[in-house]
Design brief:
There is one protein chain. This protein is an alpha/beta fold. It folds into two domains: 143 residues, 3-Layer(aba) Sandwich (Rossmann fold), CATH 3.40.50; 44 residues, no CATH class. It has nine helices and six strands; from the N terminus they run E-H-H-H-H-H-E-H-E-H-E-H-E-E-H. It has a six-stranded parallel beta sheet. Strand 2, helix 6 and strand 3 form a beta-alpha-beta unit. The radius of gyration is 16 Å and the shape is globular. 36% of the residues are buried.
């Protein structure tokens, strides 16, 4: 099927990896090491959950202030915009940290994205709901969307949503587990997306 739109994860995909230190966040929250942060947060109740969410958002926002576009991100978005291929974001982050980080994506602003889905809008990946909402808002069928992400949750969500998936490793070891679905594409840098879009 032809690719008619592109969705991206944010941290480590459109931004350079490393801004968010997940183990430091778990330590600050008192969460078990290696346990998915949002999933553990959702086991909390009342003031404990409110306090943990405030700490998480504060650390996300601080990391966002130090974020920079990933190699090739701005040129890829420019290429997509010139060809009228809509693009959007689906992230496990909150909207405030996304808006802070987007300040360094000049000339692009939030309004250039066809859709931005955060954990405030839908259950976080690996649940596919956010991706399906994004597809609906873009007026595209999921099978006509390329979803690019840097973590196994992105591949799980994209596959469950019926999208074409691309895992970007940024030169690091793949996060996929042996029983995970394989992405259609595994790439090292965003520059490789140009070839995928021209020869899917």
């Amino acid at each position: 099927m032809p690719i008619r739109g592109v969705l991206f994860d944010f941290d480590g995909t459109l931004t350079r990896p490393g801004s968010l230190d997940f183990e430091a966040i778990r330590k600050a929250l008192g969460f078990p090491q290696g346990y998915p942060i949002l999933e553990y947060l959702n086991t909390l109740k009342g003031t404990d959950k409110f306090r943990a969410l405030a700490i998480l958002e504060g650390m996300e926002n601080a990391a966002a202030r130090n974020s920079v576009p990933n190699h090739g991100a701005v040129s890829l978005l420019t290429w997509l915009k010139k060809r009228f291929l809509p693009f959007g974001l689906v992230t496990r982050n909150g909207i405030q940290s996304v808006r802070i980080a987007l300040r360094v994506f000049k000339p692009f602003t939030e309004s250039d994205f066809a859709v931005i889905i955060t954990r405030d809008d839908a259950p976080p990946k690996p649940e596919p709901v956010g991706l399906l909402i994004a597809a609906q808002r873009m007026n595209l069928e999921p099978e006509n969307i390329l979803f690019v992400g840097d973590y196994r949750f992105d591949v799980l969500a994209g596959t469950a949503a019926g999208m074409i998936t691309a895992l970007i490793t940024n030169g690091y070891r793949s996060t996929l587990r042996p029983d995970d679905p394989c992405p259609r594409y595994e790439i090292t840098h965003l520059d490789e997306i140009f070839a995928i879009l021209q020869n899917p």
